[in-house]
Amino acid sequence: MRLLTERVEQVTAEHLDAMERQGPPVDLVKAYAEPIPALMICELLGVPFADRELFQRHAVTVNSNDATPEEKYAAFAGLQGYLGELVRAKRRDPTDDLLSDLTTGDLTDEELTNVGVLLLGAGVDTTANMLALGTFALLSNPAQLAALRAGPGLADRAVEELLRYLTITHTGVRTALEDVELAGQVIKAGDSVAISGQAANRDPARFADPDVLDLRRPATGHVSFGHGVHQCLGQQLARVELRVAFPALVTRFPGLRLAIPAEDVPLRTNSDIYGVHRLPVGW
Q1: What dihedral angle (degrees, nearest 10) is formed by the CA atoms of 246, 247, 251, 254?
Q2: CA–CA dist 41, 60 (Å, integer)
Q3: H-helix or E-strand containing 275?
Q4: pLDDT in the model for residue 249
Q5: pLDDT tens by residue, 62-116
Q6: pTM of the model
Q7: What does the alpha-carbon distance between residue 2 and residue 146 come to, in Å, rounded to a whole number?
Q8: Which letter, b or e, does each residue of 117-148 get, where b requires 16 or more Cβ atoms within 10 Å of its Cβ?
Q9: What percentage of the chain carries pLDDT values higher than 90?
Q10: What is the Cα–Cα distance from 209 to 206, expressed in whole angstroms?
């Protein structure tokens, strides 16, 4: 993933240039947060970027708590149909991308399609929301914003702290494979357990002053990408994108500010992935 850093920097600069040409105010979600990770995952997988509105819409529906089961199923089926056609095209005429590389292995079309659905769906929605909500958090904490702007070398630690503080993928479910005793409570084999990543990442036994955003905090040990065998497959790509995009944004626009009152920013609370629907900013 580190080999992609230069390309991420180029894509980020192009979108900052476009924002500067357009002039304020702009919706940071549409102008910056969504297109950068979408373009990177498209290039990595070999998915046409021109189709991004289609698969972004499907990905948002799959994660929406407002969508009916039928709507979610239709969105997932739409992603499967789209990726299935693409996989068959890659087998016939491979190009220089991850999906084409995977067609040379022993994965069936169905398996490869579902790999593509997972990577594409997760790659376009999670990092986009992290970028937008992270910027909102920084703009709401001027001292932390100033610290990041003054010290680009703080980027790695800042990203980990923002991941901990925000925990945009907030809940999960796991099933015990054997009886486990946890804090005096027996979880029996076969029991399902709902897990709150937000509670874990704000556990005062692990992080001092957990409700405070502190970019200098060593936030290692957070569970924003999951844990164990279920850790996020794309976490290193997300880290590369965030480590480039946050400092570049606040450096290019030193006067970056919200263009509407903070209480009017529409929060995305109806989804498995927390974020903002829009983030109007000026400078």
Answers
A1: 50
A2: 16
A3: strand 275-276
A4: 97
A5: 888 889 999 999 999 999 999 999 999 999 999 999 999 999 999 999 999 998 9
A6: 0.92
A7: 26
A8: bebbbbbbbbbbbbbbbbbbbbbebeebbebb
A9: 76
A10: 10
Give the N- to C-terminal CA distance of the chain in Å, as an integer.
32
CATH topology of domain 2-167+209-282: Cytochrome p450 (1.10.630)
Kindly write down the DSSP assignment for every residue of 66-80, as one continuous string: SS-HHHHHHHHHHHH
Return the higher-pLDDT residue of 219 and 272. Answer: 219
Q: Tokens 């769906």 map to which residue?
A: 121
- The structure tokens listed for 75 are 């969105």
For residues 235 and 84, give the distance between their C-alpha atoms in angstroms, rounded to a whole number.
25
Distance CA 275, CA 220 (A): 22
Helix axes 52-63, 109-139, angle to 10 degrees: 80
Radius of gyration of the chain (CA): 20
* Total length of the chain: 283
Query: How far apart (Å, rounded) are the C-alpha atoms in residues 120 and 97?
Result: 13
Question: Which residue's entry shows tokens 């890659």?
Answer: 90
Domain boundaries defined on the chain: 2-167+209-282
Give burial (CB, 10 Å; 0-12/13-18/19+) of 151: middle
Query: Angle of helix 142-150 relative to helix 155-166, nearest 10 degrees?
Result: 150
pLDDT in tens, 126-163: 999 999 999 999 999 999 999 999 987 899 999 999 99
Residue 25 has, within 13 A of its CA and on its CB side, a CA count of: 11
Tokens 């099933």 belong to 175
Joined tokens for residue 72: 């979610």
Task: Give residue 181's pLDDT band: very low, low, confident or very high (50, 70, 90).
Answer: very high
Distance CA 75, CA 57 (A): 8
Both tokens of 80, joined, read: 């499967």
